[in-house]
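Repro:
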Amino acid sequence: MAVHAGGCGLVGGRSRPIDRTQALRALADGITPCPVCKPDVDLGYLT
């Protein structure tokens, strides 16, 4: 499981869109950001 930015080519068939708040919460909960599309950078999420 990983958080992806919209349009990432690595998104699998079992994906679903989430809003900004949900994405930030997922990252805070330890879900890995995709190393290719780097949604954490786009969201301004600092670890």
